[in-house]
């Protein structure tokens, strides 16, 4: 059996560990061969494919990014499924492991359902917003990077008696802000799921300052203050029309300073959260998901993806993962309230 592997969408720490886990498991246990598809769906549409051996994946589980490259090429462009079928037949590919986030898995599920392509999935995103999996690899690394940044910013904030606003990624969910904010001891955590008004933000900042602390505000890029009409997106839109979120930290900092009289600075972490070496947790999770994806392909479980349930790796449908976003639940928001201010 010859399996093609592709990574699509935004890069993410742990992608290489998935590739390594899949290839090592497939070659050693199933006597499979593998083909590396370059730059996501683009490589499958343009026949940019090369053999992928155990030699190629040596020592890559700790490397960030993806050795296969990635892109946001839409699977229904450039001839779409019919072109893919021609390439798959010419290359002798029997199955495809698609490693990606919401857009990748939605496209993969459609390719299986509507066009009969042999695709299985592995969920990937630092945002942790895919449904029907407890965690996605990459999230732990992003939260760890954000926490380290918060720890560093705290020391300079305390030296100057300033308020620091730290903007983290996450798009329309607040998992990174929630976890890094709790880990870093933030005095205000602002996430898209639970808008609060400006006065509440100012109250949290004043409360910390009145106790002699340097107030620390962690805000998710998709946060909208209560009563606001739209998200802050000072970078416009990407070529696919999606809003490029970013700038809420710079929006909040001068308002906090004006309202409280406390000198305030903002820091946008941006793509730092997606780069560098994955944590041990993400390496292990990614490796296990890659090995499980090989089992799905061997069993012909098209349209399924490997998923984390508790500590177990299970099989779920790709469509169930992209049906809705996995939002921060009310109970997680409620429990953090006692820590704020």
Automatic annotation (TrEMBL):
Residues 2-296 form the Phosphofructokinase domain. The active site is at residue 127. Its EC number is 2.7.1.11. Keywords: ATP-binding, Cytoplasm, Glycolysis, Kinase, Magnesium, Metal-binding, Nucleotide-binding, Transferase. The record marks 103 as: Important for substrate specificity. PROSITE patterns: PHOSPHOFRUCTOKINASE. It is found in: Cytoplasm. One of its GO terms (biological process) is fructose 1,6-bisphosphate metabolic process. Pfam families: PFK. Substrate binds at residues 125-127, 162, 169-171, 221, 265, 271-274. Homodimer or homotetramer. Catalyzes the phosphorylation of D-fructose 6-phosphate to fructose 1,6-bisphosphate by ATP, the first committing step of glycolysis. This is ATP-dependent 6-phosphofructokinase.
């Amino acid at each position: 059996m010859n399996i093609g592997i592709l990574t699509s969408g935004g890069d993410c720490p742990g992608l290489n560990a998935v590739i390594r886990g899949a290839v090592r498991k497939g070659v050693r246990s199933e006597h499979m061969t593998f083909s590396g598809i370059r730059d996501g769906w683009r490589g499958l549409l343009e026949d940019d494919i090369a053999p992928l051996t155990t030699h190629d994946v040596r020592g890559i589980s700790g490397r960030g990014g993806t050795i296969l490259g990635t892109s946001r090429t839409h699977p229904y462009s450039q001839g779409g499924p019919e072109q893919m079928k021609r390439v798959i037949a010419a290359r002798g590919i029997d199955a495809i492991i698609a490693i990606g986030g919401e857009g990748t898995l939605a496209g993969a599920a459609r390719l299986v359902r509507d066009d009969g392509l042999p695709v299985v999935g592995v969920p990937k995103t630092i945002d942790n917003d895919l449904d029907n999996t407890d965690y996605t690899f990459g999230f732990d690394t992003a939260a760890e990077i954000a926490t380290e940044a918060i720890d560093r910013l705290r020391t300079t904030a305390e030296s100057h008696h300033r308020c620091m606003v730290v903007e983290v990624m996450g798009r329309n969910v607040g998992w990174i802000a929630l976890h890094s904010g709790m880990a870093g001891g933030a005095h205000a955590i602002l996430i898209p799921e639970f808008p609060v008004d400006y006065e509440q933000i100012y109250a949290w900042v004043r409360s910390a300052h009145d106790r002699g602390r340097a107030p620390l505000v962690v805000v998710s890029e998709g946060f909208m203050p209560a009563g606001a009409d739209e998200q802050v997106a000072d970078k416009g839109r990407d070529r696919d029309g999606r809003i490029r979120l970013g700038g809420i930290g710079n929006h909040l900092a001068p308002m906090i300073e004006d309202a409280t009289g406390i000198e305030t600075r903002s820091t946008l972490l941006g793509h730092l959260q997606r780069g560098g070496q994955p944590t041990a947790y993400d390496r292990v999770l990614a490796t296990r998901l890659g090995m499980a994806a090989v089992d799905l392909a061997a069993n012909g479980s098209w349209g399924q993806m490997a998923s984390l349930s508790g500590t177990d790796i299970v099989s779920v449908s790709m469509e169930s993962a992209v049906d809705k976003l996995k939002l921060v639940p009310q109970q997680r928001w409620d429990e953090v309230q006692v820590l704020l201010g």
